[in-house]
Amino acid sequence: MTKSQEQKGHEEPDQTEVDEVNAASQANSEETAKPAVSATAIDTEKSSDEAGQPAHRSRRLPLTLVVVALVLVLVAGFYMLWTNHSGDDQSAQKPSSGTSTVQANQGPSGDAKAYKALQEVTVKPSVADDQGGLTVSVKGVGSKKKVADAPTLEIFIDPMCPWCGKVGRVIDPQLQRMISAGQINVTYNFLNFLDSASSDQYSSRVDNALAMVAQEDPDHLPAFAAAIFDTDFQPNEKSYQAVSDARLADQAVGVGVPRSLADRFAQGTYRPWVDKVNAYAITRKDAKDAKGEFSTPTIMINGKVWDLTAAAKSQGGLEHLDRALFKALGLKSQDVGHQGKMPSIGAQGKALKAE
What we know:
The chain is α+β, with helices and mostly antiparallel strands. It is about 35% helix and about 10% strand. A hairpin with a 2-residue loop joins strand 7 and strand 8 (about 305).
């Protein structure tokens, strides 16, 4: 797999070194930063002055006990309110402008500063979520268009990454079939840390093009996301040869993207946003593997990282990764692409172990 620029070198997965599927799952909404809260304890003073003498001496002691009890109840009430307020302040990440309610409650799963910088980008696809993901389903593009009872695959890829290409060429055709049948939702995270391997910021230019298609021609996003990994198109990471804007546009037109849109890729409308998506995504703790490393490709199923190496090995090799994916989703291969045949894990279940 290809590691992000935060890590030195590139590592390709050895499909024979993993002996079993790692069943340990990471928390989906782990917080990385909590605001410091310094709360001052509430001191409650009791008054020793009596408001007046009781009408009958025999009622003095019971009346005093009642007053004391009331004071204790009030003190307890104030303490509970203070405790709850303090706990809320400590557990909730204060949302920045434009943050969704869900994200405000969960907080970012990556670096808080990088997350904030992502929110502050002024020009970005309105269909993208707060973490830079572009979710596609049979209903269209956008997190609000998810199929409610379908599992969600979240995919992290760099257009230059060779292993992203190898994985994509196996599973992308099946992803398109399942998306069209309403069987899954797919959230794409397009990264650009391999810009350093090209002479013309290839990854950023492709990511920008993908974001423009997601925004303006969402029906063709899955096909275009697959087409960038065609063997006769994806450039070699180690011996890069320049890919022109015109060739990138032609690749998009080849899967149905209108020429009028493809010719505007060169404008780089979402390039600043792409940079911030990458800067945040590579810090996401929920997307790191069991060793605590982030690499591409990474696939999460219902919020948990799926072990690609173990999955491929279970089916005899990377070329059969699609079969491993069907098993992980609880979907029979003969049911792929058929409406009404839903994966057994649903929208919340964990990926099933490959046997």
